[in-house]
Amino acid sequence: MQPREGDTAPINVKTLDLGGLEMLAQSMGQPSYRGRQLFEWIYGKHAQSFKEMTNLPLAFREALAARCFLESAALAALKTSQDGTAKALFTLRSGRQIETVLIPEESAERFTACVSSQVGCAMGCTFCATGLMGFSQNLTPGEIYDQARFMDALARKRFGRGLTNIVYMGMGEPLLNYASVLQSLALFSDPHAMDFAARRITVSTVGLARRIRAFADDDPGANLAVSLHAPTAEKRSQILPVSRGHATGLGPLLESLQYYTRRTRRRVTFEYCLFLGFNDTTGDARTLVDICRRVHSKVNLIMYNPVPGLDFARTTEARLNAFARTLADAGVTVTVRRSRGQDIDAACGQLFAAQQQA
Ligand code: SF4
User: Fold this and answer.
1) How far apart are the CA of 213 and the centre of ligand 1, in A?
2) Which residues are paired to 79 by β-bridges?
3) Ligand 1 centre distance from Cα of residue 310 (Å)
4) Could you tell me the pTM of the whole model?
5) What is the per-residue pLDDT across 274-318, written as a single tens digit (0 to 9) for each?
6) 68 an active-site residue?
7) How many domains does the structure of the chain reveal?
8) Any idea what the CATH number is for the domain that residue 18 is in?
9) Could you tell me if 51 and 185 lie in one domain?
10) Longest Cα separation, the chain
């Protein structure tokens, strides 16, 4: 994003990419390399004010403070589960709140930050606490970036090592905040910011076919996950309102994924949350196998964290194992993600909901 000419409103520098910061510096009578210095202060050194940017001329710092601001989200709550999962609630400049989760794997080899891309969500998935809230606002690239940076610092403090993975699986549908998500991906990978390998980042979508094609064309190097959660269009439409009205069934989605895998040469992860008695039979698993034969993919089975007030229950261990075995026997790569942080409302949107009720 770049500053708009003639705009007199205060500029949030954390909405600008490197090119935008260089233009800003030039528009204020500075050489463009000052923009690179600004970038390094904001994203590499996490400066909270222009005053701290001591290698910038004093007059430039004062001019920046007069014309621009550095947004930062304030930590409103931090809870830690008995299993080590940590969940942070941040208050944005707008006063609205978002959630971010740090998930340490039991092996202590993977530390994953789950970031939000929007406040609330317009997708209205019927099993999701965030879906109940509706959509409020898109996050800026800086607001997305800062969530992972916070969790990286927390992991270093608590476990002695930083994040190994970042997933866009918190509040919101990332592909509906497309420009900011792309810009935040570039920030994560920038050697002057987090220098985080794009192949260790996963963007998760509910399955917006047109946006998936755009994501394949832009190919920021990150992985793609699709919240499938049911193996037929009919069942999917019961829990994912966005998939309703597709008379052609799962066709457009699967075609967009075939396009993605051809274009990027990466496989897709199907996220599949098991709900007791709804999508967890071996018949469902066999239908899922057919989908996996059409799209270069793997499947991540998820044990559901029940949300109070919603009509879904978690499946049993026996049904989960039978489902996973059916997939594996058919040659599908399958992993199982057990729910973490149940004692701290760690399912997407739950901490926010609990705060509202308190
Ligand atoms: S599951 Fe994801 S896409 Fe669906 S309502 Fe929740 S946040 Fe939105």
Assistant:
1) 20
2) 87
3) 14
4) 0.91
5) 999 999 999 999 999 999 999 999 999 998 888 777 788 899 999
6) no
7) 2
8) 1.10.150.530
9) no
10) 69
